[in-house]
Amino acid sequence: MRSRPWTESALWKPLLVLLFLVPLSAVSMEIPVQEEETKSAKAVWSVERVRGEDTVQYEVTIYQIPAPGGHRWVWRAVASDGSFPGGFPIGSMLIQGTGKPRPELFDPLSPGVMEMLLSVHGAGGHENGLGWADGTPVGFRRQIPVERKEVTAADGMITQTGILAGGEIVVRGGVRTLRMTEFTEILHMSAGGSLKSADWVTTLIRGEDDNARTEKRQLKVQRLEAGLIDAEESREVQSGYEFLAPVVRVLRKGMSLAAVEIAEKMFNEDRKDHEKGPLGDVVKEVAGLLKASKKVAAQPLDPDVRARKMIGKPAPAFTLDDIDGNQVTLEDYKGKTLLLAFWGYS
Amino acid sequence: MLAINADNDSRTRIREFVQEKNLQQRMLVRGDGVGFQQYHLKRLPTVYFIDRKGNVVSRAPGYQSYDQLEKSLKKALGR
Q: ipTM of this predicted complex?
């Protein structure tokens, strides 16, 4: 949060100093009121996201910690194949007061994780009858007209469903038409109204008549655990996040070798303090990313210069999936002359 | 010949392209990491020629004419 552009204006600086002082005074003087106001919590969700033929599964741990003007969600997400959705093992977003999250304050990380976080934040609290649902879970940041129903089961669990009103809406007209023919939101909540699981499904039709093709999108989230955390753990998450954020920022922007080395120096000085904390896993993962990033930054900047060194040397080994999901490695083509054509659709 | 999609296009979109152009070669997906990190791509498309021993013979960035490709291929085949 410190490097965001609006903080650079002089107007904010006195305020920032204040903001950092508040938590400190709360700790040293033990003002009970402060402790009560700042609820810190942790939740773990499993997420499945479908876009046409591509399915991603991941688990996301969200910490809610106090932050200026509201609270901050610090999340870490790990996909089922061990990779990080969004490319980095940690991210955060600021939630202002009780309102909706402010997109302009997000770290621009994985859209998949963001959709999940926004969905969880926005779900529930709807009334029966005609209403609106948030299209964010299926990749539309707009409201979608739905017909709502609410059913309370014998055990007190509430099931809210919202089904696309009118049967079909045109999302985008013109030459490349996009129609939504199905949108369903199913929310399962406890008697107290806390979201336990949710499922959003949409069917889209692109183009018209002969060229029309159908795409299914789905986001399924399930809460695995949730609970309050004590002030001690909350502080550890806070300091861990503040320690990691600038380093991840350097990694994300792919900075020069000098910048990576400075970040690494800072990182190594303090990493011992955070390795045993709640974000300890992230610290280890970031250490690995720093190492890899340093290796990349040490190479010549121009890919052509790097590529020239490859000529006459063995081709780098790789394993990739083909379009039908079969694994293909360079080894498979040993003894054959091979043409590798890298291409992109744009 | 292997075609590697290095632009992280969706499978649906790639399938469409394959159908539209009636492509016969094997199509690999999600090759952006391999392409840009291991194979140092600067732009797309880029073609690499690899000989029987598995060594990189040449690299052809950008759109190539048929003649250019044939010349590079002959070199890779050792003719």
A: 0.91
